[in-house]
Amino acid sequence: MPNRIRAAAAPGVRWLLAACVALGLGCGPSDPLEAIREQQDVHGDYKGSLEPLRELVEKRPDDPEVHFRYGTALQQTKQGGLALWPLKRAMESPGYLKKAGVPLAAMLTETGSFDDAIGICNQILEAEPDDVPTLLLRSNARMLSHRDYEGSLADAEHVLELEPENHEALIPRTVALLALNRIDDAAKAIDQLDGLYRDDSLGLHGNSALCAARATFAKEKGELELAEQRFEACLKDFATDGQMISAAIAFFDAIDRPERSNEILTHALEEAPGSHSYRMTLVLRLAGQGKEAEAEALLRKGTELPDAKEAAECWAGLGSFLIDRGRATESIEAFEKAMAMTKGESPQLWLAYADSLVIAGRYDDALKLADKMSLASHQAMVRGRVALARGDAAEALKRFDEGMRLWPNNAVARYYTAVAAEGVGDFDRAVENYRYAMRINVDETDAYLRLARLHAAAGRYRAALTTLEFSPGERPDEVPAALLHMRLLGRVGRGKQIPRYLRVVLARPDYWGAAVAALGQGVRDHAGPKASLELMRTAKPLHLDDPDFVEALAAICEDLVATGKAKEALALVDTGLGKHPDAAGFHAVRGRVLALSHAPAQQARASYQRALELDAKNERALLGLARLERDAGASDAAFALYDRAAAADPDAADPLREAGSLASSIGRNDDAEKRLTALINDQPYDGEAARLLAELRFARGVKDERTQELARRAVTFGGGDEAKALLEKVGGSPAKAATEEPERDAG
């Protein structure tokens, strides 16, 4: 599995997309703070204090009270999304940790940023472990995240120990009991709540969480029809309530009715068209369901909202959406429209815009933008991003270190520090910073996926699985993570123990076909092709004559050939071609079967060429033809095909590695080093590429630290005795096990 830094995994941009806020983080010229205190505390004039505070933020950017009052004013004037940044800045000062942290955690919970909210509560509770409002906040955030019901229950019961009559703790307690399948205790709690619910003086009448708890109780008892009726009734009363919508979506997704979940979000958005949170949640769902055009249309519709800030949020969201899909020019145009509408007031938007420029390769423009940024931490981030994109990992690491000193609790800064550490071969440091990034906010970057890939490449399969199991749900790149998860389950002998959430993520036929292939790869690595073939053939559903399942077909055919059943493999492919004669993928697999079974080269060539007639970017056919040309001694033709294969699938390592090896074998060493260096920069855990590159450097007499580091990297990532011998030759110290010992024979 590759581990590249792709547009689709650019956390600086994803962060903006996931946050769905942070566009009006203003700055500007000022009135005295004393007058603002009177304006807010005496007269309650929060709206009138906004403009003076915007001006004061620029003059006193390090004053926590200025940020706190600005955030409070935004919150009181129903601009909660814009209040997040100033409240975050305020709580960095110890005297404002709780004062700013509690309202900030409440807003983060309301917008679905549960991990961020929990992290803030943790900081407060370290100093004040019995603070009831913070315990309640954390209990609710843990409950709503659907990931820590035990923690939610513990917090709620702690509150009830401190304040036995605190009815606010009863709802998260009840929901947690339900989720933990403590049905008898939950039934008693529901009865207690029902009694309180009828007493309007307690303020529980019309409570959305209680409504959701009653519906969830029916679900947990297996009364799905009653649960559905209750959820539908709740939605009539709480159509735009975030907690209610979250609970209802979880229910309908769980009973395999994702379209009903989409309808709920669509209705909520119709009722509250300015809600960027609902819009982005629906956009991400639609995109995940393969409805890219609908998702984009929904964002573009939002750019037409009459409120400039709401429209700007949608332009920024569209910029993130487009950059993730490789449409860099359109993305930059979208960010520029968002910048114009907000008059450059948002530091976060500046950062996301700069990140899009880096992804588009406009490095000088990104650096010019960095020079104009108001926050030194953002300047350091952008300069580090440019250095990393230009291949200077050491300079990038220096810049990211600078950014982390200014912004220590930032997941993106930690993430890029880890990426840069990989570039210089410091994988222990990479592990540490990926873990930090995950703890700060697992949804903000794909740190969890890169760390899992690092562990897997080093043979630490259980550590990789543990990493992938950390807080799944709305993380970036859930599908690639799920495919890696499937491969690792096969690798450790757990191929029949597939968690339900993986099946949900991989429900699309093309995803499931790739998932079966990934599972087979893991089993093959662990127990050989016969075991792999047996397990893959039991996977359900499995329609090998459907082009959506071409990856599963390819994997099964590879194992059939490896176990002496090439004729059966060919018959399997021909069955699919009989139904879909114009399926390029099937022709490419046919070529691969012929090549593996040592049929005449012209037969395999004909199948590959037919695949390319149907799809000029079919990576399997391009790679297969490249190998045929290589074996025939037609090096130039092979290189051209390898380059096309690499362009067709930027995640694939084989084209670059094989082209590098070919260049080395025919004495084109400079070309070989160039190709292998590009692969290592892109996919730093490729032990074979690292070994080949170290050998090339050693052959021309270079035994410097870089050569030694590459040899160590080869040892770390599966190079075996050959890599160890090379490391000894180049004079390098033994490779360290990055945090844990490998378990290559485990499982």
Describe this structure in words.
This protein is mainly alpha-helical and 747 residues long. The chain has a domain at 684-747. Helix content is 71%, strand content 0%. The protein is built from 42 helices and no strands. Helix 20 packs parallel to helix 22 and helix 21 runs antiparallel to helix 22 (376-389). The chain is globular, with a radius of gyration of 28 Å. It starts with 10 loop residues before the first helix and ends in a 17-residue tail after the last helix. The relative contact order is 0.06.
The fraction of residues in strands falls at under 5%
Regions with pLDDT < 50 over 5+ consecutive residues? 1-31, 198-205
Can you count the beta strands?
0
Helix content range of the residues, please?
Answer: over 70%
The quaternary structure here is single chain
Number of helices: 42
How far apart are the first and last residues' alpha carbons, in Å?
19 Å
Query: Average pLDDT, to the nearest integer?
Result: 86
Provide the structure class: mainly alpha
Q: Which outline best applies?
A: globular
- Biggest β-sheet description: none
Rg, Cα atoms, Å: 28 Å
Topology readout:
Elements: H1 11-19, H2 33-42, H3 46-59, H4 64-76, H5 80-91, H6 97-110, H7 114-127, H8 132-144, H9 149-162, H10 170-179, H11 183-197, H12 208-220, H13 224-237, H14 242-254, H15 258-271, H16 276-288, H17 292-302, H18 308-324, H19 328-342, H20 347-359, H21 363-371, H22 376-389, H23 393-406, H24 411-423, H25 427-440, H26 447-457, H27 461-468, H28 478-491, H29 500-505, H30 509-527, H31 529-536, H32 550-562, H33 566-579, H34 584-596, H35 601-614, H36 619-631, H37 635-648, H38 654-665, H39 669-682, H40 687-699, H41 705-716, H42 720-730
Helix pairs in contact: 1-18, 1-20, 2-3, 3-4, 4-5, 5-6, 6-7, 6-8, 7-8, 8-9, 8-10, 9-10, 10-11, 10-12, 11-12, 12-13, 12-14, 13-14, 14-15, 15-16, 16-17, 17-18, 18-19, 18-20, 19-20, 20-21, 20-22, 21-22, 22-23, 22-24, 23-24, 24-25, 25-26, 26-27, 26-28, 27-28, 28-30, 30-31, 30-32, 31-32, ...
